[in-house]
Amino acid sequence: MQNRNLANLLTLAGLASILGSITIWFTQGGQGTTHEERSHGERFGIFVGLWAPTFFILANRYHTAALEEGR
């Protein structure tokens, strides 16, 4: 897979992580009957949201590599 395509894929993965985090936080965070169940859903949503910076950093690295290949 070319660096440019991989950079685009990782950018989309970062955006999906953000959207998934919001969705999980809203759907599972308020669904539980006890405080512990609600807290677990909120923490899981935050955990998924923490993946986004990693995807964006990797996308930036592959984008830079693609630009260097073009020279």
Please describe the topology of this protein:
Elements: H1 3-29, H2 35-49, H3 51-69
For the sheet with most strands, the description reads: none
Poorly predicted runs of 5 or more residues: none
Mean pLDDT: 88
Structural class: mainly alpha
Number of strands: 0
With helices defined by DSSP (H or I, 4 residues minimum), what is the helix count? 3
Percentage of β-strand residues: under 5%
Rg calculated over all Cα atoms = 16 Å
- The oligomerization state is single chain
Write the H/E string, N to C: HHH
Could you give the distance between the termini? 19 Å
Shape: rod-shaped
Binned, the helix content reads over 70%
Question: What does this entry look like structurally?
Answer:
The mean pLDDT is 88. The chain has helices at 3-29, 35-49, 51-69. α1 packs antiparallel against α2 (35-49). The protein contains three helices and no strands. The chain has 71 residues and is mainly α.
Which key features would you list for this structure?
3 helices; rod-shaped
Task: Give a short summary of the structure.
This protein has 71 residues and is mainly alpha-helical. The protein has helices at 3-29, 35-49, 51-69. The protein contains 3 helices and no strands.
